[in-house]
Amino acid sequence: MTILSMRDGPANYLVSEANGMYRSRDEADVIGHASLILEVGTVLGQVITGAATAAVQPGNTGNATSSAVTVSADAVVGVYVVEFLTATTFSVALPGGALLANGATGSAVTRGGLTFTLTVGATAMVAGDGFNITVTKAPGDFARHLLGATDGTQTVAGILYEEVPPAVTIKRTITRRDCEVNGDHLIYSAGASAAQIATANAALLALGIVVR
């Protein structure tokens, strides 16, 4: 027998919202969980500090290194591809393949929300060598509210209006202000105690979201 799982539809938590629905709602980039669906009613935090990691591509001839990788609000979540054109020059492509910029070793590249520096090593890079720089979150993105986080998501910033599939960052409607919600339909930070839920509700109230 096939077992079907039913999930709540969009905005099941809403009791009322402001006249002109977009007074209460915003569209935002929401970071999905690595392996689970973020369900409607998930309490969200907003990323302040982005995250990116640089890794050498397998098979490089040279041994240049990367440093000072930082992310701003203009960054795109995904893999930026750095490909060397000569021993000291390279191109940078956005996730999806579009050319973003050209750069040179020893000088910081700051484009498309990403900043990094590549430094030559003892063995020269050759054309076709490269790095992958993976951006996992950018300032301004939303993610599940997480107690104890240090990237900004430890602060309550809204409620998810429609679910988010696993392992993607996707634009979704979120509730940000001026509404009443049913607390029984909210999904709080994993492991939140009664006191921590009360604190989260107080933070929602400060945004103009009244938990009933």
Characteristics:
212 residues; mainly beta; Virus Head Decoration Protein, Chain: A; 5-stranded antiparallel β-sheet; 1 helix
Brief description of this entry?
With 212 residues, this protein is mainly beta. It has one helix spanning 194-206, and strands at residues 14-17, 25-31, 43-46, 51-56, 65-71, 78-84, 89-93, 99-104, 109-111, 114-119, 130-137, 142-144, 156-160, 169-175, 179-181, 209-211.
Residue-averaged pLDDT: 94
Over the alpha carbons, how many angstroms does the gyration radius reach? 21 Å
What CATH calls the topology of the largest domain is Virus Head Decoration Protein, Chain: A
End-to-end Cα distance, whole Å, is 39 Å
Task: Provide the CATH architecture of the largest domain.
Answer: Beta Barrel
Sheet with most strands = 5 strands, antiparallel
Instruction: Classify the secondary structure makeup into a structural class.
Output: mainly beta
Q: Hey, roughly how much beta strand do the residues contain? A: 35-45%
User: Which residue ranges are poorly predicted, with pLDDT under 50 across at least 5 consecutive positions?
Assistant: none
DSSP E strands, number: 16
- Any idea how many domains? 2
CATH superfamily of the largest domain: Head decoration protein D
Q: Record the strand order, biggest sheet.
A: 2-14-13-3-12
**Secondary structure tally, helices:** 1
